[in-house]
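Entry for NDP complex. Fields follow.
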Amino acid sequence: MYQVIDGKKISQEIKDELKEKVAAMKAEGVERCLAVIQVGSDPASSVYVNNKKKACEYIGIKSLAYELPEETTEEELLELIGSLNAREDVNGILVQLPVPEHINEDKVLLAISPKKDVDGFHPVNVGNLSIGRPGYVSCTPAGVIQLLKRSGIEIAGKECVVLGRSNIVGKPMAMLLLRENGTVTVCHSRTRDLREITKRADILVVAVGRPKMVDAGYVKEGAVVIDVGIHRNENNRLCGDVDFDSVAPHVSAITPVPGGVGPMTIAMLMNNCVEGCR
Ligand code: NDP
């Protein structure tokens, strides 16, 4: 029988721990404040921003919401980021992606001070992660590590395969698994004999962005499978990159979609806001 890793429950545990920490910090006169900037009114982005606001409220983090119109110029956005970088009362800054096409995303991410980059996307933080220095870590892969640890799954010495090499999931995921002493292989669209490699995995993390691509033919008996993917199917139901029904009977543990990795991303964002770049 396989274990279903309950991301909803684990993320709630993390949020409750953070709530206590924030209350203790407040008692010592320290307040945490996250600035969330959204440019335009993309409905999916509005949902994410709203969820972040709600999580801040729950934990006791002050949140500043900047809802800027679609036609905001790059200069105006950079100016706002600059002013938030300079504010001592703001300790986290987040720009909800994607930004409209006329704004250069790289410039925006570079403009956020690495000390306030709670998303962990700034090259300084990415570099710190790869050389093992303290810094902010990208929230989704950090959430995957917490799911594994809090489910009692040992990473050290395990054969870990990451399917996907994006800057926000695959690459930082590989660095984190390496930091936890896993033996890590990263696969991508040019990988040959993909199934042969994924079948070696004791821990398989799938962030490939293709609905239900990974079926039983990709996994070893008894593996742990973490599904980062999120898609909405034709019936408006959520599914992941893993075909859960095909894979689950063969594994020792697996994350569902929804209720697996998804809720961990916000919990880890809150963790970054509370802990700072330790
Ligand atoms: P990207 O599209 O940026 O990256 C996908 C990766 O998968 C790329 O490295 C690509 O390879 C590789 N890939 C694509 N097709 C294949 C294939 N057929 N065989 C092998 N490799 C392939 O996606 P993200 O990393 O941003 O996201 C991945 C998934 O995770 C998505 O479903 C996304 O919605 C979800 N997601 C979920 C989050 C959460 O909070 N739970 C947060 C972020 C993302 P190549 O580099 O060669 O092109």
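NOTE: The two ends are 38 Å apart (CA to CA).
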